[in-house]
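ugh ok fine here u go
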Amino acid sequence: MIRPPARPAPAGTVYFSLLGPLTAVRDGRPLPLGPRKQRLVLATLLARPNTPVPVDVLTDAVWPDDPPRTARKNLQVYVSAARALLGSTGDDGRDRVVHGCGGYRLTIDEGELDTLRFRSLARAGRAAGERGDLRTAARLLREALDLWEGPPLNDLRDSTGVAEEAERLEARCLTVYEDWAETEIELGRAAVAVDGLRDLVERHPLRERLRVAWMNSLHQSGRQAEALAVYDDYRQLLARELGLEPSPAMAALYRAMLGRGRTARPATAGREAAHGTALPAAPRDFTGRREELRELLALLGSPDERVVVVSGPAGSGKSALALRAAHLLGDGFPDGRFHVQVRREDGSARTPADVLGELGWLCGARVPGSSGVPAESTATAASAATAASAATADSAVAADATVPAGSERGPAAAVSQGAADAWQRWLSLHRALIVLDDVPDEAFVRGLLPRSGPSSVVLTARGQLAGLAPVHRIALGALADGEALELLAKLIGPGRLRTDPAAALRIVRACGALPLAVGVGGMRLAVLRHLPLAEYADRLGDPSAALDELVAGDISVRLRMASGWQDLSADDRRALGRLAGPAQEGGFTLDGAMEALGCGERAAIRTVESLIDAGAVTSPAGEVTAHAALYEVPRLLCLYARERAEGGFSPG
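structure:
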């Protein structure tokens, strides 16, 4: 049965459904959609509504292996049939399907397509949940789920292109189901979600969030033995199929269920609410870093590890990794998870007293000298994903810089002994997770780190923070080619990436495979739909133009490079400018450094190691002598350093 849209459509309007088999109805009567190839074209256009779909993507969907020479003419026939079925739009009678430089674009309203209505209801439901209106959130999310009638496009999944779109739609439906189930659990109505969660877990046995929701719903319904069995089954499945263990967060939930009564999802807290979880949104396009994430989750889930340093060049995804872990570890830190941006929007460091004042306010700790109420909250978003990534990238994660009222801005604003003691007392009595993002140096954070107690701190920094001990260190470099391509595909669409995979690989390599740069490049391509991947790859391959091309709206890779540049000492800037030449040719050796710097061996070693400590130069992961090592400067930092050197930069 096809459910009508929430808002009545005019008589004669065609209503399409993708969240199940591809179907269409007009005035309550099903419409014939023609032969299979025509339905594949229609499904591909509907899966990307109001967006140009390249001809190559449509061709791949219909003829994935060997398109005939007449493929384009045949597509025109199928599109013409779709136009006849869809009719016109607006008062001027324009065609709904038009062809432009980016491909074919289908214009369709929310009341005519179930996926658009689903997205609208899901967004409204999540917004209600963020406001704390859980009943409204549950109702709207349930309305969205009522549109989901089974595996999307299940009658056309033998086409690889359509199958990818269908899997994306199904993943979106699963996420909304998880949101709805968690909301019902929090409202104390877990019983309504139990059966549906069981069915979905049977279909998606490795989806951990579903398992956790099922455990919680069973436990809240008084079925503790069954809840514990869900964990045991999952643990055995992971060990058997993947050789892995459940996440520390899920293990902590299991231990909690063994020792206490019914468990509900903690309430979501926004930045405006103190004394709870205060994290920016989870990175939407987080990609790769599987080993690093697993290591970080294991460390933070251990009772012995209290401080972890995540280091890497600008744009390597440090913040995204830390936030991803923080969002996954909610049950392991019952006294809260808190994120504080250590720098201001202009890249300058705040004072330790300023940061401690914000921590005291967020955590509810009584820190002398703090007003307890922040006077300003400046959100800085460098999304690349998430937002990048990504999104994805550490600079692509939205982060707040909240400054308590009356805090001193000058370097003299040191932490008083009374404030430091009060903070340490709070840490010793609570199990909280603190993320201090973009730390400039060791001296800044020494007084903020826990000396005892169960709390943990994650520090992200470009430099190694070598003066901190004992801490565990996770160093991030470039993404692997496959991971970088995965991130790019999330931003521009897998179909477009498949049109020229060789050019896509050139793009991510020209970005140094850094999440920030790949994210910015992907966002730029997502807007410039007409731009061939090969042409953009050529632009990025030009050293004199690459940084100019890596700008998307208010996000600029050059600005991130400039911030890292300012962190370097005058001597390190001068040295990096001289090393940028040989480094651009694929790395440099100690002999190359001696020649570029015009100094002896010991001086060259000290200079290179100073740059390694600052995060400007990368070295081999394993042990190797200084003479045998191949050192590298990340490509984009190298381009920026050469740009500054050729421009006659001032060392200060």
